[in-house]
Every structure is written in structure tokens, then in C-alpha cells.
Amino acid sequence: MKKIFKYIFAGFVGCASLSSCLDDALQTAPTDSMSGDGLLANANAALVPLNGIYRSMYASWSPTGNTHQSFGISSYNLMADVMGEDMVMSAIGSGWFWYDCLYNVKSFYSSGAWRSYDLWNGYYTWVSNANYIIAAEETIEGTTEEINYVIGQAYAIRAYSYFMLAQSFARTYKGHESDQCCPIYTEPTVAGTAGKARATVQEVYDQITSDINKAVDMLNGIKRKHVSHINHAVALGLKARIALVMEDWATAKSAAKNAIAVSGCTVLPVSSFSGLNDSSAGNVMWGAEIISDQSTMYAGFFTHMDACDERGDGKYGADARKQISKELYGLINPADARKAWWDPENENNKSGGYQQEKFKFSDRQTWTGDYIWMRVEEMYLTAAEAECRLGETAPAIEDLKAVMDKRVEGYTCTKTGTSLGATSSDYTGSLLEEIIIQRRVELWGEFGRIYDLRRLKQGFRRTAAMGWPSDALLGNRPTDDPECYMWVLTIPQSEFDGNVNMDVKTDQNPVGDYKE
């Protein structure tokens, strides 16, 4: 079939390690080349295709003209951040991420060079390769621990991929369980595999929760081989993220608390992880170690973030600056050490927001810096939110303080309640709002703001007073309506072209902000 699966990374079978060359990994042969008689015959050999999947999570691989804004997980998080209100894009630059920021990508679903194709292709690539590994569960040789290490990660990768597909191509879980979502594939797919119809949001989340639970069970007690691998703690962290979206507060709480306990990570002072570019830092649960021969140069996260103002090195981050909204910056305690993550005095701020200093290259000469995908601070804030939702005020404040005590000396909080405003600029003074605000500050640039806005069912506003340029104010768009389809991506035309069980007339998401 011509489906998106024809672009699977079959070449990963040739990657001996995470540092193997990427060019060989970008073949377009069907994934059935990942034979059970070869690399999937035993657990140690299966680490090769598994590492290939992880390599693609931080590589610039887009098969079309979208390369500079398609570098895996970090590019998708950046996309979701500029879609919100807290990360100001001060200028168009060369256009990378600008059209995500303007919500002007959905009508280009017939092109392979735009966001719909990139996300759909990327996540389904990981699903398909994970399916090949999972299919070998009963035949693969090795000790129980070796097999569980490989298969457990494959389940986690599949859960994560479907979770992100659901958040990108459907409205949020709660209240939209019967909406159309995306097709579910749990078996290996090849060029002739028949495409499936869109499953419902509920069906997709059922698959997600089943997969992540298997991953948590299988990875329990196993020491991981590399920080890029999903271990027991990271699987628990993903389970906590999923539970937040599903509004399963008890599961979110227990998963986050367990993730903290087994991760071995600790909340660090801001000064201890300057630049957010070191995956070996004591607060990092999951990330990608980027070495010099793996740098994707212009198609990389730090290239888009680091303006290099203090040295004038002229990286792309100076052309399309990423800045914090003045409104969010104004909510930060004056004594908060995180104030150093932004520079309100930077001469390039002009009428925009405040220039970011949070993300810096670790080595500008080699364009390197590690990508951070999960920190233990997120888990404390997740536990705090879940406890607050459950009416457990004292434990919620305790977990909030676990982070804030390392940010603001003498931090106290006496707030209560769970009320949130209709938009993120409508303030209520509740404890839940305080937790969410600190989450916005702590995870700025790391998590993808729009994902939280969706699950919280809050609208947002952009104003010139926040530092937004006039072209990005979205004044004629329903940003205050969390039920709209404004931030639900369209499905790429290539899917309809190759899938007889999907019809563009009935299965395509709205190109506009509402269903007609």
C-alpha cells in the first residue's frame, strides 16, 4: 500500500548503536526487513533496531522540505509551545515554527513538507518499528530480564506514540471519548498491509493504557543501558502524563510518586543545570545525549533557542527569537532563581517578550547540547496537581514545595481550591492555579504548552502587552474556546491515498476552527 508506513525506518536494522550513521537509517523499504530470524532472534541483537528508534527521536530526518523544524521529540515540544501563549515568537525568521505559531498549517495537508505529514509519519514510524519488536515477544531468545528490557521499551514507545498522536489529531480525552482519533496498529505492517479505519479516542486511550501498563511491569527492577532508553521510572512518568490527560487523578498521583521514588533523581537548584543541555544532570529522567557527529546543526533545538547574544555567534536563535510572555514573567516571584532563565534587559527584546537564556548550547563550535525530555521536577508538579484535584491540600503543597524550595528561598503557599479561569489570563487565586503557573514557568520550552491547555480545557489570549508581535495575535481566531478544532491537526492526504478504510470526505479533521 502507499500508506504512510512506506516511509518506515527499515534501515535501523543496520545501526549498531545510538551513534550509528543516520543516512543508512533513512531507507524506505518496508519494515518486514526487520526479520525475526536476524536482529529479533535474541534480545541483545534486538537492541540494534531499538536504538535506531531512539536515534530517530532526536535526528533530523524529515523526507521532505520540513527538515529544519523536524528533529524528533524536541521539535514537536517546541511546536506545541509556540502554539500557546507563554512562548513568544518575536519574528518570522526563515519561517520555521512560525506557521505553527500562527495556526496556519492545517490547509497544507496534501503536502509532505508541512506539519501534518511530519507528525503523522514520525509517530507511526515509531509505532510500526515497535510493533516488529513486540511481535517477537514469544520467540526472542535471552534471559527474562534481557527480553523484558527490550520488549518493555517497545510497549512504552508504542504507548507514547499513540498518546502523542491522540493529542495532535483529536480533541482532548475527557468529554470526547467517542470522537474519531487515529487508526490502531498492533501488528507488523508491510507495504501491502491494508490500512485501518480511525478508532475512537476511547479505543486509542485503551490501547495506550494497556501498553504503558505492560511497559511499567516489564521494566520494573531493570537497570537501563543509556539515558535515552525508557526505563521503569520513565515509563511511570509517561503513565502519569497519560493519567493527567485522562483526568485519572489517583493514577497520576501514584505513577508520579513512584516515578520519583525509583528514578534516583532529585530536584536541583537552577544553577546546577544551567543551559538545560546535560542529560547526565541529577534531575534528568530521560533525554538524548548528543555527540558532535550527531549534531543536526541548523535543524536542532538549541539552534532555534540560543541567540548567542553574549558572543555574537550568529546562530538562528537570533533571527526568530523565543521569548517569555511578559505576563507569565510578571507572575514569577522576584526572588525566584528561575528569573535568570530570561533577560528583560536584552537590547533585542524591543517591543517583544523577554529573551530566553534557559536553553544554551553546551558547545557552540560543534552545535551540541543534550535534549532533555523528562525531569523529576515535572513529576513533583504532576503529583501536586493530582493531589490538589483529589482534595489533598497538604500533600499537594508539600510536593509543590519540593520544587519551589529550590527556586524561591522561604517559599510558602497557603492557597486552596481547584478553580481555574476560562482562559489562562483569568486568575482565580486557587492552589490548582498556583501549581499550574509554577508548571508553566518550570517546564517552559520543555513540555509543549498547548498540550496542557487542551487537557485543562482553558482558552488563552495573546496581546501586544505580553510581547506578541501583531502578526501573531490571532485576534480573529477562537483561542478562548477549548472545544474548537483550532489546535487539532489535519490528517495528511497520503494517508487517504493509501488507506481504503479512510475517506477524506468523512474522516478528515476540520481544516477550519470548527466543524462545518
Automatic annotation (TrEMBL):
InterPro entries: SusD-like_N, SusD_RagB_dom, TPR-like_helical_dom_sf
Subcellular compartments: Cell outer membrane
Residue span(s) of domain SusD-like N-terminal: 113-244
GO cellular component: cell outer membrane
Domain of life: Bacteria
Keywords noted in UniProt: Cell outer membrane, Membrane, Signal
The RagB/SusD domain, residue ranges: 345-503
Pfam families: SusD-like_3, SusD_RagB
The family this protein is said to belong to: Belongs to the SusD family.
Protein name: RagB/SusD domain-containing protein
Organism: Bacteroides oleiciplenus YIT 12058
